[in-house]
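User: I'm putting together a teaching handout on how multi-component assemblies are represented. Below are the sequence lines for each component of a complex, exactly as they appear in our records. Could you produce the 3D structure of the whole assembly as structure tokens, so the students can see both representations side by side? Please keep the chain order the same as the input.
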Amino acid sequence: MRRPMVAARLAAALVCLSVTAYAADAAKPTAPKPTAKAGPVAADVLAAAGPMDWRSPNPENLLYMDLAQGRVIIELAPAFAPAHVDNIRKLVREGWFDGLAVDRVQDNYVTQWGDADNTRTPKTAQTKLAPEFVVRGDAVAKLPFTPLPDRDTYAPEAGYSNGFPAARDAKGREAWLVHCYGMVGVGRDMALDSGSGAELYAVIGQAPRHLDRNITVVGRVLRGMDILSSLPRGTAALGFYDKPEQRIPIAKVRLAADLPPDQRDNLVVLRTDTPTWAAYVEARRNRREDFFPVPAGHVDVCNIPIPVRTAEAKPIQ
Amino acid sequence: MRRPMVAARLAAALVCLSVTAYAADAAKPTAPKPTAKAGPVAADVLAAAGPMDWRSPNPENLLYMDLAQGRVIIELAPAFAPAHVDNIRKLVREGWFDGLAVDRVQDNYVTQWGDADNTRTPKTAQTKLAPEFVVRGDAVAKLPFTPLPDRDTYAPEAGYSNGFPAARDAKGREAWLVHCYGMVGVGRDMALDSGSGAELYAVIGQAPRHLDRNITVVGRVLRGMDILSSLPRGTAALGFYDKPEQRIPIAKVRLAADLPPDQRDNLVVLRTDTPTWAAYVEARRNRREDFFPVPAGHVDVCNIPIPVRTAEAKPIQ
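Assistant: Of course. Below is the structure of the complete assembly, with chains in the same order as your input.
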């Protein structure tokens, strides 16, 4: 008692006598109908996943950001923002972020880091870039896309592409990464080309989907969101820290590709284009755990954090 | 430069030359179409709001939870969960929470508090209650409801009721509070009647809407979400703290009604049933700030945190 969702989820066999009556009486939001208790729960889908269901991110796409609080690992998404990803690699390789800081933590919005005092000038990287807010034209058809069956409030179609939450327009002319929890974007000023990757942010609250298509999204935090989301909130306007000494120093940022293999974290990410993924999505759409008398029958694109784990053995590439 | 959304939002007059072309080319997700640059921005709507646009929550519905980190203020929603709210008042009045602790902080999910070790027995309050997961029947028609124009992934209709985010089924037979950021729910075990309000949680991440209609929601945090969301994450299963000494002690919880008026925080909450509210929603659906070349044209029910401020003068009741 009084150990709510806890004991709830750990327990497995407890029978809820009123489940059937309640579910039958409940609202059926929209088609397709909840499939209720059929099928495995999400944990069982993951437990049954084989090596081919997981992928090893390209080390050229992995950033390690080291803070005193621990390591944050970000996967970059060059398929959606090739110029920005290239520029971020240049920035990292010239040590841009080393010794800079997290300067903004706005509750229910973003944690942001970079050169708050505008003291540095990149040596090899660009200082501004044309926006990559969306992918357009022929490039859209080349992007893998696993749509969700559920309607999305913001986009005609939402789903997953290359392991990132994404959306498309109705005519297949544009695709874009969406601002889910943990997604990483490029800070910019008013000018659309004023971002370069020299200042980045991660989403730490309810998905701010109004930013979609208005800012370049470059990746997703695979590890360390618990660090970025629990930093003290800034008390100045927009969550900036009032005083420089409140900032959270960044020791260094490195590309995994630039480290010897034995110094890399061996993370794997669940693929989003497999039957296992489809089963995982279905398990999230309709929670079959006994705790839930009313399976939702739907899921928001930002409500399926894509599983990440440490590879026990190196998976097949 | 490199002061992204920041300078962006503070600035007001900068002209983005490419705005028109970009917006015209952008996907138009679903009807109704974005109204783009017409109308005021959200900050201007709030600035123009008069005393009648704000309400003073009933002191019988306000909980003050005092932690070393500061005060958390919760507004209870008796229209949606009358028995649970009544029981929570009894628990508070018998000092139930005083000296207990926050025992669980699960990243991107919930912060939870109560009697983790099950050491206490309520003196006047119930230990279990019939679920109030939804409001049914005639009571639904009596609830005020301001629908959003946008489609919702989870419910036939989403909107606001009495200042809380809510949803309804298609036939008006059920209504329920939805699990947005900052909403407060009643922890329970597997049995549907095992919650009583003796263990509570607040949502600290992406809205876990799959919990809607599966658990009793009793209110919303008006102040102090920055405290609850930035606590250290628990490292045991489900975000529980590993060791009792990691828990965050609760000094005391009081009802505002039980304090002398001069010891109450004088908060007011924006009404959700006024023309000002409608204008505010529209300003959130289509960001007219120059930063946004592509107004979203839509908004999620959980993406309009209902404004709260300290009353400068006591508003009209």
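A couple of points students might notice: Chain A touches chain B through 99 residues (CB under 8 Å). Residues 82-93 of chain A form the longest helix (12 residues).
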